[in-house]
Specification:
This protein has about 200 residues and is mainly β. Helix content is about 0%, strand content about 40%. It has one helix and 14 strands; from the N terminus they run βββββαβββββββββ.
Length: about 200
């Protein structure tokens, strides 16, 4: 027979150019907190799991109950109409995240940072990015009407061996990337007289 060498592809993770800046509104639903671009070069790449975090300023999230007054329905979707993993209806999950700790140990909430994951090493999401294709992933959430944080930053956290080449079966790791800082606005509509009239 003939020995056939399968070259491993590569992937890059970066902030998407259209990641949203600006403000969030109290009570806003399905709002995009950050966008991330993942490029699969050479071969299709299977995403097994992704850790993420939401960093809140001007509020201290020390318990699940406090976290649940800030956000709900956290999801990760792509620009092709797919969803990565399941929606986290009531955060945090009980997932044992490779880089995020466990909810039982209350390590999902520390110093205003909520960490969690879509999929785990034991229960992967197996989301496939086609070869030589960029997928833009949007981290979305509902902002509760009781939200009191000042700003929030969405991030994908660095993971180890969370990516796998579909052809080569070789594993790779994704790096950390952050979205923009978004400010919570409690004033949903502002009106003023047009002095030109």
């Amino acid at each position: 027979g003939t020995l056939v060498a399968i070259s491993q592809g590569s992937s890059t993770v970066s902030q998407a150019s259209d990641t949203p800046p600006g403000n969030l509104a109290v009570g806003q639903s399905n709002v995009t907190v950050a966008k991330f671009a993942i490029y699969a070069a050479g071969e299709a790449v299977r995403v097994r799991f992704l850790d993420f975090s939401l960093t809140f300023a001007s509020t201290t999230i020390t318990t699940d109950a406090i976290l649940q007054t800030q956000i709900a329905n956290v999801a990760l979707t792509d620009d092709a109409g797919g969803q990565i993993g399941s929606t986290i209806t009531t955060p945090p999950t009980t997932n044992v995240c490779p880089g995020g700790g466990t909810a039982a140990a209350n390590s999902h909430e520390a110093a205003g940072v909520y960490t969690d994951c879509f999929g785990t090493a034991a229960s992967p999401v197996n989301y496939v990015i086609p070869a030589n294709t960029t997928r833009v992933l949007s981290l979305k959430t509902d902002v509760r009407s009781t939200a009191s944080f000042g700003t929030v930053v969405g991030r994908l956290l660095a993971n180890t061996s969370n990516l796998q080449g579909v052809t080569s079966s070789q594993t790779a790791s994704s790096g950390a990337v952050a979205g923009a800082s978004l400010t919570l606005s409690t004033t949903q509509l502002t009106t003023a007289r047009n002095t030109a009239l």
